[in-house]
TrEMBL record:
One of its GO terms (molecular function) is hydrolase activity. This is Ubiquitin-hydrolase Zn-finger-containing protein. Residues 1-94 form the UBP-type domain. It comes from the Bacteria. Gene3D superfamilies: Zinc/RING finger domain, C3HC4 (zinc finger).
Length: 113
């Protein structure tokens, strides 16, 4: 039987949504537990912190039409696994997001990936 990764924890970065001014550039989904975190270009870099803190090294993009998997521990592409839906964040949800929290100077705040 093929293991299916659990559903995503929500439609946005868990840690960014937990603060009144948190925002993200792009989203990543942990294939081990479904945690949705922000990418390494984002200010918080919550997806890679989650991978390091929990020992869940593999994540996939949570952006529409992106179908890649990444192993943070190995620093290389990972083998795809089946995912419980939804595959991506809602397509009407803006990136960066969430709507109303992204500062005007957001591009200057991004980290190089």
């Amino acid at each position: 039987m093929t293991r299916v990764a659990p559903p995503p924890s929500g439609t946005g970065c868990v840690e960014c949504l937990a603060t009144p001014d948190g925002w993200w550039f792009h989203l990543r989904r942990c294939v081990e537990c479904g945690h949705v975190g922000c990418c390494n270009a984002s200010v918080g870099q919550h997806a890679s912190h989650h991978a390091h803190d929990t020992g869940h090294p593999v994540a996939t993009s949570f952006e529409p039409d992106e179908e890649w998997f990444w192993d943070y521990a190995a620093g290389e592409a990972a083998t795809p696994v089946p995912l419980a839906p939804p595959r991506w964040r809602p397509e009407d949800q803006p990136a960066p997001g969430p709507e109303g929290r992204v500062p005007e100077n957001w591009k200057s705040l991004l980290h190089p990936e």
